[in-house]
């Protein structure tokens, strides 16, 4: 038996609809490609209570479209800088946008899941790994720490 990537998702193991959703300029695969420490920092930065909540621009959009946000601004930001910020290599703003209350409601479950996984992996000292790694790619010690932590967690 050999592993082959799916033709429709390219091996990302998600439906095209899920891959089309972007939160603050990043798709789920972009976030999963970050190391755990960077993913934790990203989640903290888009929190509405953070210092970054000054622009009020809607940050959740699908397929990079310029759909109007509830506040009248455009949401698509594929082409680069916003508010004087330089653009990163993949077209997202260098500093993350902030989730509005509406967008936070939409992204709440995904962010909760990411936050839970990030906290779990940081708690066992694996903040250098990325979330897109499969269990088979972990070393014996890394896998052992994950298993130990799961078994010792309160039910």
Automatic annotation (TrEMBL):
The ranges of region (Disordered) come to: 62-96
Task: List the GO molecular function terms.
Answer: ATP binding; DNA binding; nuclease activity
Question: For this UniProt entry, what's an example GO CC term?
Answer: cytoplasm
Concerning Gene3D superfamilies, the annotation shows: ABC transporter ATPase like domain
Q: What keywords would UniProt list here?
A: ATP-binding, Cytoplasm, DNA damage, DNA excision, DNA repair, DNA-binding, Excision nuclease, Nucleotide-binding, Repeat
Q: Which GO terms describe its biological process?
A: DNA repair
Q: Where in the cell is it found?
A: Cytoplasm
- Coarsely, its chief localization is cytoplasm
Ranges annotated as biased composition (Basic residues): 74-88
Q: What name is this protein filed under?
A: UvrABC system protein A
Organism taxonomic ancestry: Eukaryota, Metazoa, Porifera, Demospongiae, Heteroscleromorpha
């Amino acid at each position: 038996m050999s592993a082959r990537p799916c033709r429709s998702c390219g091996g990302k193991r998600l439906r095209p609809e899920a891959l089309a959703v972007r939160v603050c300029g990043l798709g789920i695969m972009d976030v999963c490609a970050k190391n755990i420490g960077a993913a934790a920092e990203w989640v903290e930065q888009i929190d509405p209570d953070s210092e970054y909540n000054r622009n009020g621009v809607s940050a959740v959009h699908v397929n990079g479209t310029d759909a109007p946000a509830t506040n009248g601004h455009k949401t698509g930001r594929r082409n680069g800088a916003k508010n004087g910020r330089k653009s990163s290599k993949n077209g997202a703003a260098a500093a993350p946008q902030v989730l509005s209350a509406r967008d936070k409601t939409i992204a709440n479950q995904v962010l909760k899941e990411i936050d839970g996984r990030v906290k779990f992996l940081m708690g066992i000292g694996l903040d250098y790994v990325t979330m897109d790694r499969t269990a088979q790619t972990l070393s014996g010690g890394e896998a052992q720490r994950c298993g130990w932590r799961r078994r010792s967690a309160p039910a």
